C-alpha cells in the first residue's frame, strides 16, 4: 500500500489496523464526563455551604457550634504534632496539662487529620477544618452517587438524587456547623456495598478482608457513625432473612463467614487502638448527660431545618436540641415523597427491609417517651428497653435519626429509577413532587462569627521568651467548654506549640474516683472561682488561704505565664482577681501577662 500524506507504509498500516472506537467506548466516555460534572457540582454546592468560613478560615468560627469547631481544631493540632514533632499517636500531653488527653477516647479523626497535617502545619487548622467540611459534604454525596449509579440503580439522575440527598440533607448540613466527623461519611456507602456483596459466591475472604479494612478506616473517622451503620445493616439483614427465607438459606453461611473474616481483620488491626480507647489512661464510661436527654421531636419530620432554604430558626429551635442536631427536618413535601417512595418500592423485599431498618432507627431516635412540638408526652417508646445497654448509652439519641435521613435518600433514588416504567401522568406528578421536596431543602451558607484576633504575643512568638520547656501558658478565661473557647482556639491554631491546662475534650470526670465521661477537666478551686467571676460578674474577697490555693493550682498546672484574653466577659473583674494574687501585670505583645514564680 502506498504511503499517503507523508506517512510511511508501516505507519499507514498501523492506522488501518487500529480498531475504531466502539459506540460502547464513546458511551463510557460520555458517562465519565457526566460523573465528572456531577462531582464538580457536589463540590461547588459544598463550597457554597462553607463559603463564609472559607473567606477567613483561621479568623472566623462557625456560629452554630463554636465549641465543637474549637475541639476539632485541637484534634488537627494533635495530628500535626504527631507528624511534625513525633508526638504519641493516641495521647496528647500538651493539652489538659498535667494529665493529658486520651485521643482514641475522643473524636480525633486520625484518618483525616494525619494526611492533612501538612495543611494544618503550613496554612493553619482553620483551613483544614473548612477543607474537611467541604470534602465531607461533597465527598459523601459523590460516594453515594457512585455506589448507587454503579451497583444499584440504572438512571444517573436517580443516583444524583440519592447522592444530593445523602450528602446535603438537613442532617448533614446541620452537623457541618462543627461536627467534622459526622459530615465525613464517604466510607459508609462502600461499607454498605461490601456487606451486601458478602452474599455472592467467592467473596468470603476477599470481601471480608476489604470490609475489614474499610471498618478500620471508619473507626479512625467516626465510630458513632459506624455503630449506626452496623445497627442498620443488622436490622436490614434480619428483616430480609425473615421475608426471603429461601434465598437466606442459600447465602447465610458465606455471608456470616465473610462477616467473620471482616471482624478478624478489623480486630487484628484496630484491637490495640480500641484497647487504648477503653482501658488506657484518660478513658471514661458513659456521657456527661443522660442518653435520653436529647431526642428527636416527632413534629420535626415535616418541618424545615434552620439551614434549609425554607427553614425558620424560631420554629426549628423549638423542635431541635441544637444547631448541629437538626437530624430529620425533611419538610412537608419531602416527607410526602419519602412515603410515596416507600409505597412504590414496598413489593421489593430488599427495599422493604431497607425501609424497616430506617423506621426502626427513627423510632430509636425518638427516645423513651414521645416528644411533640417541644413537649414531652407520657407515651412510652421502645428505646426505654435498651437505653442503658453498653455502647448504646454512649450515643446522643437524636443522632439515630441520621440513619432514616440517609435511608430516605436511598429510597428516593430507587423510586426515581423505577418511575420511568410508570404512565406519563404518574411520572409528571412524581417529578413535580420531587421538585417540591428538594427545592425548599436547598442549603443556606453556614453562619460564622469573627473569632477573637490572636495577639502579637502569640503570633510573633514572644511567648517563647516567657514559657520554658515543661511549663505552660495559662489563658484566662481558662480553656474550657463554652467559657474558654478563645484560649483553646489560640492554642490549637498554634498547633499546641505551648502547653496549656484544661480545655474542652472528653475524659473522666474525676479519675480515679469517678470515670463518668465529662466535657472538661476535673474542677479545681481556681477554675471554679474564675468561672463564677466571668459568668456572674462578682468581685470575690480573697483570703490568704484563697491566694495560696490559687497559687497551688497554678503550680499544679505548671504555669509559667498567665495571660488575660482581651475583651473577655467581665474581664475587669477577672483582672482584679489576678492582680490580687499575682500583682500588677506586664503589657507585652498586646496582652497583659503575669509571670508565675513557684
From TrEMBL:
Compositionally biased intervals (Low complexity): 12-21
Superkingdom, natural source: Bacteria
Transmembrane segments: 36-55, 103-123, 129-148, 157-173, 203-221, 227-243, 255-275, 328-346, 353-374, 394-416, 428-446
Keywords, ordered alphabetically: Membrane, Transmembrane, Transmembrane helix
Keyword Membrane among UniProt keywords: yes
Region: Disordered, residue numbers: 1-21
Signal peptide span: none
Protein name: Glycosyl transferase
Native source organism of the sequence: Actinoplanes campanulatus
Amino acid at each position: 500500500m502506498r504511503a499517503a500524506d507523508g506517512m510511511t507504509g508501516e505507519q499507514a498500516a498501523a492506522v488501518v489496523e487500529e480498531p475504531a472506537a466502539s459506540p460502547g467506548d464513546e458511551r463510557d466516555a460520555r458517562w465519565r464526563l457526566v460523573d465528572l460534572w456531577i462531582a464538580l457540582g457536589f463540590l461547588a454546592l459544598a463550597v457554597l455551604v462553607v463559603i463564609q468560613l472559607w473567606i477567613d478560615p483561621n479568623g472566623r468560627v462557625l456560629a452554630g457550634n463554636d465549641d465543637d469547631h474549637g475541639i476539632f481544631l485541637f484534634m488537627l493540632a494533635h495530628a500535626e504534632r504527631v507528624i511534625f514533632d513525633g508526638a504519641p499517636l493516641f495521647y496528647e500531653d500538651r493539652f489538659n496539662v498535667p494529665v493529658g488527653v486520651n485521643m482514641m477516647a475522643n473524636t480525633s479523626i486520625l484518618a483525616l487529620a494525619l494526611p492533612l497535617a501538612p495543611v494544618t502545619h503550613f496554612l493553619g487548622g482553620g483551613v483544614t477544618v473548612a477543607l474537611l467540611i467541604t470534602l465531607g459534604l461533597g465527598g459523601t454525596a459523590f460516594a453515594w452517587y457512585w455506589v448507587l449509579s454503579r451497583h444499584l440503580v440504572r438512571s444517573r439522575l436517580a443516583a444524583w438524587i440519592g447522592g444530593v440527598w445523602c450528602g446535603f440533607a438537613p442532617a448533614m448540613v446541620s452537623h457541618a456547623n462543627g461536627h467534622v466527623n459526622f459530615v465525613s461519611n464517604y466510607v459508609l456507602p462502600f461499607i454498605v456495598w461490601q456487606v451486601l456483596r458478602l452474599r455472592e459466591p467467592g467473596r468470603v475472604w476477599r470481601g471480608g478482608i476489604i470490609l475489614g479494612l474499610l471498618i478500620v478506616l471508619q473507626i479512625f473517622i467516626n465510630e458513632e457513625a459506624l455503630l449506626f451503620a452496623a445497627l442498620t445493616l443488622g436490622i436490614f439483614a434480619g428483616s430480609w432473612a425473615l421475608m426471603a427465607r429461601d434465598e437466606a438459606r442459600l447465602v447465610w453461611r458465606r455471608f456470616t463467614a465473610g462477616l467473620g473474616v471482616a471482624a478478624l481483620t478489623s480486630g487484628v488491626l484496630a484491637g490495640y487502638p480500641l484497647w487504648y480507647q477503653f482501658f488506657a489512661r484518660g478513658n471514661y464510661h458513659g456521657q456527661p448527660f443522660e442518653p435520653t436527654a436529647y431526642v428527636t421531636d416527632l413534629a420535626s419530620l415535616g418541618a424545615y431545618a434552620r439551614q434549609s432554604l425554607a427553614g425558620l430558626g424560631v420554629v426549628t429551635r423549638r423542635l431541635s436540641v441544637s444547631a448541629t442536631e437538626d437530624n430529620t427536618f425533611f419538610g412537608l413535601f419531602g416527607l410526602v415523597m419519602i412515603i410515596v417512595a416507600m409505597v412504590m418500592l414496598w413489593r421489593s423485599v430488599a427495599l422493604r427491609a431497607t425501609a424497616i431498618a430506617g423506621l426502626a432507627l427513627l423510632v430509636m431516635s425518638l427516645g423513651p417517651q414521645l416528644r411533640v412540638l417541644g413537649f414531652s408526652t407520657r407515651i412510652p417508646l421502645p428505646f426505654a428497653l435498651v437505653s442503658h445497654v453498653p455502647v448504646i448509652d454512649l450515643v446522643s439519641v437524636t443522632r439515630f435519626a441520621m440513619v432514616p435521613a440517609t435511608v430516605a435518600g436511598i429510597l428516593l433514588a430507587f423510586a426515581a429509577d423505577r418511575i420511568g416504567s410508570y404512565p406519563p401522568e404518574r411520572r409528571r406528578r412524581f417529578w413535580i413532587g420531587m421538585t417540591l421536596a428538594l427545592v425548599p431543602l436547598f442549603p443556606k451558607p453556614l453562619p460564622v462569627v469573627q473569632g477573637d484576633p490572636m495577639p502579637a504575643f502569640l503570633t510573633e512568638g514572644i511567648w517563647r521568651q516567657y514559657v520554658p520547656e515543661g511549663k505552660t501558658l495559662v489563658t484566662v478565661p481558662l480553656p474550657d467548654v463554652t467559657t474558654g473557647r478563645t484560649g483553646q482556639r489560640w492554642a490549637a491554631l498554634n498547633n499546641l506549640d505551648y502547653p496549656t491546662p484544661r480545655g474542652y475534650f472528653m475524659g473522666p470526670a474525676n479519675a480515679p474516683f469517678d470515670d463518668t465521661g465529662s466535657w472538661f477537666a476535673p474542677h479545681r478551686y481556681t477554675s471554679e472561682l474564675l468561672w463564677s467571676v466571668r459568668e456572674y460578674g462578682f468581685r470575690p474577697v480573697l483570703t490568704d488561704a484563697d491566694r495560696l490555693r490559687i497559687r497551688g493550682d497554678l503550680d499544679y498546672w505548671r504555669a509559667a505565664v498567665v495571660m488575660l484574653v482581651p475583651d473577655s466577659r467581665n474581664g475587669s473583674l477577672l483582672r482584679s482577681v489576678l492582680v490580687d494574687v499575682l500583682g500588677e501585670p506586664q503589657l507585652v505583645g498586646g496582652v497583659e501577662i503575669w509571670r508565675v514564680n513557684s
